Structures are given as C-alpha cells and as structure tokens.
C-alpha cells in the first residue's frame, strides 16, 4: 500500500521534510539560546555593583567599550572645542535635547562629552557654552550610538550645529580631527555660569544586557520555528494518509466510474443498418407533400402549361 512513497514525486516530498524539520529545530534552538544569554546577562548585571560607584580610571584604560566597562567612570583632560546639539532626546517624560561638547585631549583625539540636557526645541534655545581653558572631566563611559539606540534620528536634514546620533562615524565628518569611538555623560551639572540649568543625563545600560523587547522577540521566534517544524510533519502525515486511502480504494474497486461524456454516448448509440426511415409526424407529411409537388413539377408529363397563371 505504501509503495507510492518510492515514486519520484514522493522522493522530493520526503527530502524536503527531512531537510526542513532539522532546520526549523536548529533555528528555534538558536533563538532560544539568544534569549537565555540575555536572561543570564540581565541576572549578572543585577548582581554586579553599579558601574558608576566604582573608582574612576583613565579613558584609555577602559577602551574599547563593552558590557563590563560601559557605565564606568572615565577621566579625561583636555580643552573643549566644537559644540553640537542632539535634538529629540527624552528625560523625565519631557522632550528636549543634549548639549554635546568635544573635549580635545593631549593625544589629539576628541572625546564627546554630554554636558547635560535642556527641555524644549534645540532650534529655539541658546545652549550654555563650555568652560574655557584646560579642564578635567569625569563622566560615565558610553558606547557610540547606532541606528538601534533610543532617540536616534537617522532621517537627517538637521540644521547646522545639530546631530542625530552620538558616534565617531558621524562626528568625524563634521570636525577636522579624530574622535574617540565612545562618549561620556557628566553625572552632575557643571558648576558656575548658566550651565547649572542643565540636567545631567544618566548613563544607559549597554545594549543586549537586559530583558528588553528584543529579548522577548527571540523567545517568540523560538516558538515560531518549533511550530513550523510541527506543521511540516503534520502536513506530511496528512498527505501520506490521503494517498494511502486512494490506493486502498482503487484496490477494493471503490473508485467511482467516470461519467460518460457526450461523444462517448453518441459513439455508443446503436446505428440502423436500413438507413434513415421516413418520419411519420407532421414533418414527415410535409416532406411527402413536397415530394409529390416535385413530381408534379415542369418535368412531369402531366403538367399543364396553359393552366399556369400569368404574372
């Protein structure tokens, strides 16, 4: 009954099932591993002490920024140079912007420093100027932003003096010197002048270290891949059962005969060997009368030409 499984058509179906199920299981397991890694990193982050409470270290000792050094206090000395505004940033459920100043260090590179946050629109507000002369700043270290970071503006078209993303890749196109692939945010407002009006921007947790929406997306993808594997197996069993039932019906003679078509019925109708018979109905009478009229036509010897009316 199941010999049909060895036909070329079923060889293709079986090969697809054999390859699809392990692939779905592998992808589901991989997504589950991603979710477990995020859960583990979240638990480790909760058990670890707050990075901002640890002793400050020189900037170069904490680079490159990773999950361990993110949020650690970094110390850098230099002179403030260019200043930019970062619009569209939210703090305490209010819309505002960051004040970003570039600190040029002795190495020649510049460190982006978020000196604070101000409410309102960046276009309508005059930002406080940075302190002059050589300064030493201690701020919480952060990795460069990317397109997946919160508040980033990737649409472009910002006015001069504004940027949508705090990253070295963006800033090197705006200044004539190198920029560190990191930035710091000052934990306290600067003393003196008008800078005291700015609010400090708290350091954000590194990406992929918490149970955010992406972590639960990995869990959802896990379920989807396992559902796909079960669906492929279900459809294979259903097709096999249907084919087996058809083979069994044919073997038992339960398959209904095909209805006769019109051509088959015409060809199977009995034909008379005596030729067509004259009809006995009205049409037959008319045919006989027409035949009699033909016999009485001009070719008939009894036809009287004189009795024909003149038109």
Kindly describe this structure.
The protein is α/β, with parallel strands linked by helices and 311 residues long. The protein contains six helices and six strands. Helix 2 links the parallel strand 1 and strand 2 (73-91). Helix 1 (8-47) packs antiparallel against helix 4 (213-252). The radius of gyration is 45 Å and the shape is elongated. The protein starts with 7 loop residues before the first helix and ends in a 16-residue tail after the last helix.
**Inertia-based shape:** elongated
Largest sheet: 5 strands, mixed, barrel
Number of helical runs? 6
Helix content: 25-40%
Radius of gyration: 45 Å
Structural class: alpha/beta
Strand content: 15-25%
Order of helices and strands: HEHEEEEHEHHH
Q: What average pLDDT do the residues reach?
A: 79
**Residue runs with pLDDT of under 50 for 5 or more positions:** 275-295, 297-311
Strand order of the largest sheet: 2-3-4-6-5
Distance between the termini: 88 Å
